[in-house]
Design a protein that fits this description.
The chain contains eight helices and eleven strands. It folds into two domains: about 120 residues, D-Maltodextrin-Binding Protein, domain 2 (3-Layer(aba) Sandwich); about 90 residues, Periplasmic binding protein-like II (D-Maltodextrin-Binding Protein, domain 2, 3-Layer(aba) Sandwich), CATH 3.40.190. The N and C termini lie far apart (about 60 Å). Strands 5, 6, 7, 10 and 11 form a five-stranded antiparallel beta sheet that branches. A two-stranded parallel sheet has the order 1-4. A two-stranded antiparallel ribbon has the order 2-3. It is α+β, with helices and mostly antiparallel strands. Helix 2 crosses helix 7.
């Protein structure tokens, strides 16, 4: 009996001593090089590496919640997410007040893509459907969608948007520039897609839940150190082969 009680005490002590995990959100619409999902679990990618490194340096295990984009705001409001990365303030109009922004960590360019190489000005596009990601916001194009000059043709992920463009479902689509570059590597040169216009350039960071159970300031300091040391830029270069666009960490 004493042996059993002793074993139970040791298990309870171990569980009490184990640090609580950091809960990270992962959008199921992300694609490589941002994140690769295998069986619904993130296994590699820029954001995966950043989040795992952050959790390791803070001394917490990383736990990932893979959610549809439309469910992220609700999960945040219920305190189910401690850290949400790869966000811009222009994208989030419904962020709960109990989250704090990190410094900008990376620059993302949203580009207009076509099967044809000729550059184009977006305001000169004829009325037509454009490939977009379900529940994604495109602040600079929202007025064109609102007045009907352009319409959205939504897919669940950025990779699906590009697949539909290749299949001829529409003439133009919107995507992250890094995802476009990665997608093109899978195509024969003659069939590769073309960046025909830069739509917007966003400075992206993370938001951290303000709660006594979350080491908010340690997380924010660690993200700042990861940016200043060049760690985040090195992760981006590992997956893209490109030097990350410059972004000041104290912007």
């Amino acid at each position: 009996m004493r042996v059993v009680l002793g074993a139970l005490w040791m298990i309870a002590t171990t569980l009490m001593a184990a640090p609580a995990p950091l809960h990270f959100s992962v959008s199921d619409s992300w694609a490589m090089p941002m994140v690769h999902l295998e069986g619904g679990i993130p296994t590699q990618g820029i954001l995966y590496d950043v989040m795992v490194s952050l959790a390791t340096q803070v001394g917490r295990p990383a736990q990932f919640q893979v959610l549809a984009r439309a469910r992220l705001a609700n999960a945040m409001s219920h305190g189910e997410i401690d850290v949400r990365c790869y966000v811009a303030q222009a994208w989030l109009y419904d962020v709960p007040g109990d989250y704090t922004w990190s410094v900008p960590l990376m620059v993302q360019r949203t580009v207009l893509i076509s099967t044809e190489p000729e550059p184009i000005q977006v305001d000169r596009l004829l009325p037509q459907a454009v490939g977009t990601v379900l529940n994604y916001r495109y602040p600079l194009l929202d007025p064109l969608f609102a007045d009907g000059r352009l319409s959205r043709d939504d897919a669940r992920s950025e990779e699906q948007v590009l697949q539909k463009l290749v299949a001829g479902r529409y003439a133009y689509a919107l995507s992250n520039e890094w995802i476009l570059d990665r997608f093109n590597q899978q195509l024969p040169i003659a069939r590769r897609l073309h960046n025909v216009a830069v739509i917007e350039e966003q400075h992206l960071g993370c938001i951290v839940r303000n709660d006594p159970s979350v080491p908010v300031q340690q997380i924010l300091r660690t993200l700042l150190r990861m940016k200043q040391s060049g760690e985040i830029d090195a992760i981006i270069q590992l997956y893209t082969g490109q030097t990350a666009p410059s972004v000041s960490p104290d912007r």
